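Figure caption, in words: inputs first, then the predicted bound structure.
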Amino acid sequence: MYICLCNALTDRDVRATCESGRSVSMVYRSLGCEPQCGKCVPFVRQMLREQEGANAEIGGDD
Ligand code: FES
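Bound structure (FE2/S2 (inorganic) cluster present):
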């Protein structure tokens, strides 16, 4: 599913770059682009939060 129409980024593209400690701007930069209209920024931020939560759960088992 496209989440950024300006840069033709899909949720898969973004998820692949969502690593712990990354900022929204780092995600765009690693994909070789930058926000244009900004409508997708909340979605990218949400995906980063979800990734942080998933990492916390994985790390919490030990
Ligand atoms: S939809 Fe991503 S910058 Fe416009």
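The chain has a mean pLDDT of 90.
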